[in-house]
Amino acid sequence: MSAWHYLLGLLSVAVWTLQVSAVTVMPSLSIDPIVQDREADKPSSTTELLLNLTDGVYQLCTEPEPEDWRDGEGACLNTVKQGTTLNGYYGYPHSDSFVCLQGQLFEESLSGTALVVSWSGHRWAHIPEDEFTWDQEGRLQLSQGYVAHREGEDENQVRWIVFRQATLNMQGLYLYPESRMTEPTQLCDWSFNGQERDDDESVRYHDTRGRDHPQFSNGDRSCKADAAEECASTHCSA
Asked: Per the confidence metrics, is the pTM higher than 0.70?
């Protein structure tokens, strides 16, 4: 056998060896059936996630659960679920900035009515009827506000303000392992009687300090600066 033929033989063996090695070491591209099942079981939306849960109290927030003393991060919905009905409040933990909500799960939203309480330490001087965005995250839309009930006189008057239309976008909220905030029944009182209407209320809203209502102010979601004393009061804190 000539040297040329011997060299060609070695090259053929080398090529065959590389082909076999490639087939042997190439990882499988097939997906584990168990992984496929787990992916299929994942809820496709926040609404689907809630619908699959038993009735009870749940907390969902715009940010993941904090690994410290705080009850939540971002803006949070703390609610009692009964079937497709939700009854709770949405707002910022460790502050008095929250709105009571009750309504139905609809696609990726909670749709229903809202309630806020205007009092001397947190007053709504005027009530908007046109739709407006309540929170910095742009998730809660309110409209058609009116005074449903009032108690007291002058600067000591307390008013229960209802918004006939309330829509909370729940898409992408984080479900916490357990509710860490105050129970909704301790903050939201829908038991007032009678219906009152202030037709002369302006659609503009501001507080008695001449700036936007505290629930809209400065993106401050915690007890800071001039809100510190208000937030220190546990009876009005989320």
From this structure: no
